[in-house]
Amino acid sequence: MDRLLLFSVLLASFSAFATSDFLIRKSRNVRKRSTSNTVVNGIEIYSLKIDSKVTSRFAHTVINSRAVNRADVSQEAFFDVDLPKTAFITNFTMTIDGVTYPGTIKEKEVAKQQYQKAVSRGQTAGLVKASGRKTEKFTISVNIAAGSKVTFELTYEELLQRQRTLYEMFIKVKPKQLVDLFQIEVDIYEPQGLSSLEAHGTFITNDLSPVIQKSIAGNKGHVSFKPTIDQQRTCENCSTSLLDGDFVIKYDVNRESPGNVQIVNGYFVHFFAPSNLPSIPKNIIFVIDKSGSMSGRKIIQTKEALLKILDDMKEHDHFNYILFASIEEPWQQTLIKATPENVANAKKFIETIYASGGTNINDPLLMAVEMLNEAQEKHMIPERSSSMIILLTDGDANSGESNPVRIQENVKNAIKGRYPLYSLGFGHDVDYNFLEKLSLENLGVARRIYEDSDSDLQLQGFYDEVANPMLQDIELQYPENAVDDLTQKNFKNYFDGSEIVVAGRITDNDLNFFTADVKAQGADNDLTFVDRINVQEREDAIKQLDYIFGGFTERLWAFLTIQQLLKKRVSAQGDEKENLTAQALDLSLKYKFVTPLTSMVVTKPEDEKNNETLIADKLTEGEEKKASWVSQAPPYQPTYTSYARPVYSVDSDPHFILQIPEKKDAICFNINEGKGVVLNLINDPESGVVVNGQLIGDKGVSSAAKMPNTYFGKIGIVYKGLDLRIEATPQTIAILNGRDNSVFSWLDTLSLDQDGLTLIINRKKNLVVSMGDGAKFVVVLHQVWKKHPEHQDFLGFYTLDTHMFSERTHGLLGQFFHGIDFEVFDVHQSSEPGKPDATMIVKNNTLTVTRGWQKDYRKDPKTGTNVACWFVHNNGKGLIDGVHTDYIVPNILSTA
What we know:
Elements: E1 3-7, E2 39-40, E3 43-55, E4 58-69, E5 75-84, E6 88-96, E7 99-101, E8 103-107, H1 108-120, E9 125-126, E10 135-144, E11 149-159, E12 162-163, E13 166-173, E14 181-189, E15 194-201, E16 212-217, E17 220-225, H2 229-232, E18 245-253, E19 259-264, E20 267-272, E21 282-289, H3 297-311, E22 318-324, E23 328-330, E24 336-337, H4 340-351, H5 362-377, E25 386-393, H6 404-415, E26 421-426, H7 432-440, E27 446-449, H8 455-466, E28 469-477, E29 483-484, E30 490-495, E31 500-506, E32 513-521, E33 526-534, H9 535-543, H10 552-571, H11 574-590, E34 598-604, E35 629-630, E36 647-651, E37 655-660, E38 665-670, E39 678-684, E40 689-697, E41 710-719, E42 724-728, E43 732-737, E44 740-745, E45 750-754, E46 757-762, E47 766-771, E48 776-782, E49 794-801, E50 822-828, E51 837-842, E52 845-856, E53 865-872, H12 873-876, E54 888-889
Parallel strand pairs: 3-14, 21-22, 21-25, 25-26, 26-27, 38-53
Antiparallel strand pairs: 1-34, 2-3, 3-4, 4-11, 5-10, 6-7, 6-11, 8-34, 9-35, 12-13, 13-18, 14-17, 15-18, 16-17, 19-20, 20-31, 22-23, 22-24, 28-30, 28-32, 29-31, 32-33, 36-37, 36-49, 37-38, 39-40, 39-54, 40-41, 41-42, 42-43, 43-44, 45-46, 46-47, 47-48, 48-49, 50-51, 51-52, 52-53
Helix pairs in contact: 3-4, 3-8, 5-6, 10-11
């Protein structure tokens, strides 16, 4: 049988950063750690090289990792790489004991069929982790026999984008062990000449700084980083490595001419980035989500970003804010000029923003368009000015017009191609696909803002990219009847610090001179820029550079064309979408790019044993898949799920799940108690927050000897600081505030915001409770068939933010809020197929745990999402403090 290694890598939009990350995870056969400084679990990475060649912003990167199994048994070695989201993989090979297995690019459906056949033959399969901010992880593993060697080699290409005057390349460095030969080599060739070149690393110490070598010689630049083993150590004689973080290269080119044209083998690339132009006044409307889900840290960071953005406003700019929740609330009825007085008043207004209500996205966007139209028609803004809308939201539309398709149609019909709409999606729960289509249909782009301590800087960073429009209505023109297959050549805006790139094919073989004309509107008048070059001289100059990879202009043209076709495909329908898909697929196969439409297959000879097939699926920003690993030989490989933040939950009968991002894993346990028992989930004596849950059981049990299934039928939340108590059952939600008592049904839609507390009832779905900056709970409603003979409605409880809680917090969930350290090893087959046992060391206890699955019902109360976890037996004994009966309390609102 052929041995197939299949992997499909889905790459996405916007950022262009080069990164690579190398890990060797725990092997299948866990043995005592080697005393060697360079060996981890029997596997030694003895060489790790990253070689990148950048030609006119187009980077060709080869990652080569070599490992040897020093153990006396076979071991599993992993090759993990954090790839840039805009990069396309072009090749992957594995060399095992001198035999190389190359990859081939195939249409995704064809590769999928091969993959399914391989799985049916009992071969292994796997998936890769979800995306990060700038990168997505690609993982391949191989079982190495004792004493054998393996070489992994991955090649990818990307166009470095210029943002805020610099091109940046990020290389994530994380070998997890000392490496005999570790090196990063980057060669840069820029025909315009380099004006600056810098390199640094987040992990670089004073001792490591001299190891970074960089040089500029005219139009060539070089960066190298080759630390010795001793320089890699965290301390003298330590076996741990300092190499853990981002290695960053930044550069820019000389700007004597605004344009630069490169021609090789009949393909041209035109880079256009003028400088020293006066900025065009901008008219900007910020459409800001202040719905209840934005409460806490989100709204605080949004306000901080808006305040900083105001400081960067130029006095010739015009601006306004439209806040929205269930209804839209404009700050001013028209755009106003950014005078010092108006900016000061805007700051006072921003300080008053608070979160409450639902999410109506449609109406505020239409109001923003109408406001810009009126300002233009009544000449309230300069004739030569650049208008735009920036939308910030963290959720789906659930108020007013809530159909995403109709919202997109309404906004597109209103804007009519006049203003770009930029959409910023806050957090992972936002409907990013909706925002992406909304922006792409209206001359803009969408970005995800990650919930983190620097969310305000992310918001401000995006504003900085569009803060200084220098040209608008830009049209690039090339020799008539001499070029074909052009990429996008008309642009609404050019912003200071960015760059416009156009590529195409030269059809006139006798063309002596190539002329590129750029026409645009500037701040004061219409402008024309002209680049005229001798075709043969330019080609000869490029070909003399033997270290530059050949034919880069053609590959760059294909790269840009595929990206633009995929982007158009997002909003296309019917025949147009099929045509765009066919064009992108054809180019992907021709130029051997792994794109959303293709996969790469590595085939091994028929006589190989222990066949394996791996599929690596790289994700777009709009997808939220999780890593999983299924293996047939042996029956199990650890499954790691990428969590953006910790989630502590209890649901179903009742299953407690601790999702721990630091470990990229989860622990689960059950509590077996009878109906009516009340369990304490959270108790923080400092903040005064207490959460309890009362168990209910099935309506009947078929056997008297059988313990009935139990679920949470009531959740009680106490917040002593506000004298607040909440009792939620599957029928009602009672809110007791002092002597006031309000009762709501799950049929209600409600949002309350008072004194830093936000309560949101999402009809027949869930109750969201946010307390200040750092405490957020979700109570999920589970409803069964009304006349079900056995089961009844019940509740689930999830903690999404625990920053507010003190170190003294306890309870079945609360005791884990400030982290838990554990180690799992000796994974082995149990008596139950597909559920291996392992040994866990936690809280100085050695436990036998079992791999399994539980459900996370936050997004879908009916089917839920699988979460792989290590199950701790006997009511969590050894994991929880004390025994489970210590957590039984007298009543649902007990604070004892």
